[in-house]
Each structure stands twice: as structure tokens, then as C-alpha cells.
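pinned: reference chain
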Amino acid sequence: MILYFTGTGNSRYAANLIADATEDEMFSMNEGIKKGDYNQLSSSKPYVFVMPTYAWRIPRIADAFLRKAAFSGSKKAYFVMTCGSQTGNAVYYLKKLCLDKGFEFMGISSIIMPENYIAMYNAPDKTEALKIIENSKPHILQTAECIKKEMPLPKENISPLDRFQSTAVNPLFYSIIVSDKGFYSTDSCISCGKCVTLCPINNVHLKVGRPEWSGNCTHCMACICGCPKEAIEYRNKSKGKPRYFLSEKP
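pinned: its C-alpha cells
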């Protein structure tokens, strides 16, 4: 079973490719989280968890879902992390998660995909994004081949800087940076409600036709990047920046 969490589509894209290559079913953690559905999941094939990288670890919201959900069948767990550049020492925390959940850790694959975190960085333009996506395919398919054969994924090198980023910087990122107080809508808003639909944690709602945020944000960038009118901004960080949102197929 391929389980994915996604903000702007990178991890969904990787999950789709892996599911096609392994002929396995998919499960959206976004939907599970949004509905509060932690019912038992069962798979005779290995579990493959596909998700983005938030400050050199998996998103806390995804970690919480995996810890709450019940799993039966296969004990093998693969992790595929999409990232703009690197995943740090996420492997350390994934091994701990597997130990806590009774999984056999089968490895991690770091997949370079277009940057989407426009609250801090720049997203690529469409041409560059498509180039990055195309370049990611061989790595994703190599990963899928290992999964299909139930082989361990190749080990990735971990540096002292990786350990520092995942251990020390990650908590600071959540305590200092992750907040929805900087989000606001502009007069370009058409009250379509897509931001409400896209938010995986029901943190966005419409009030008098305009989005409001409820204080429980995970900075997935779904609302700001998925807005069809680019009518959502984050402080003064996002103005003029390209939005990056990957639909089912680029």
C-alpha cells in the first residue's frame, strides 16, 4: 500500500509513479487526517510512506497520523521523501517511528522535486519545475523497483550538518516559523473555497466569502499555492513569487 501526504502535489506525483510501477493501491493521508479516520489499514504488500520534507524531517502532522493509525499485514516499511534539496537525518527519526510501530525499516529514498515553500524560498517557474520533475523520474522508478522486489533501499550518506539540521533546527522551525498568522487574502479572491478543500487539517474556512485561518497550520503551502487566482499571500514573503502546484499529471 502506498500512503502519501502532500501539500502541493510533489509527494502525490511520486506516490502515483510508485503505485503504477508496483501495481499497488494508494491511500491519501490527507483525506485520513482531514476526516480523522485512523481505522485499521491492511496490506499484504510492504507499506510505502511518501511525504514531503519539513525542516529535514517528515511533517509532524504525518508522523502523528502514522502513530495513531493501526496497520496489519506486512511489517515492511519504505519511506520516500520529496524535498527541494535534502532530507537531513530524517532516517534517524524514521527508524525510531518504525521501532515504535513494529515495522521493519526498509530504507529511505530522497527525491528532489520543485521547491514549494514560498513562505521562505522561491518556487521555480513552470519550465524549470517541469525539468526538475522529469529529472526525478529515474530515481522514483529505481526506488519503485527496489520496493517491488522487497529489497532494502540503498543507504544515504548522513553528515554532521544533516544531524544538526534534523535535531536542532527542526524544533526551532516549528516554534518560530510555523504559524498561520501571516496568511491573508487579497481582493483577487473569488470565494471559490478551494483553499478550504485543500487544507488537510481543516484549518481554513470561509468567513463572509474570504478565507480565515484557525491557528493550526502545518505550512504545507496547499492554500497559497493551490489558489487559482493567486489571491493568498504570506506576510511580505510571497508577493511576486511563482506559485507551484502540481496537479495529478504535469
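why pinned: Helices lie at 10-22, 29-35, 60-68, 90-101, 126-148, 160-177, 194-198, 222-226. The first strand starts at residue 2 and ends at 4.
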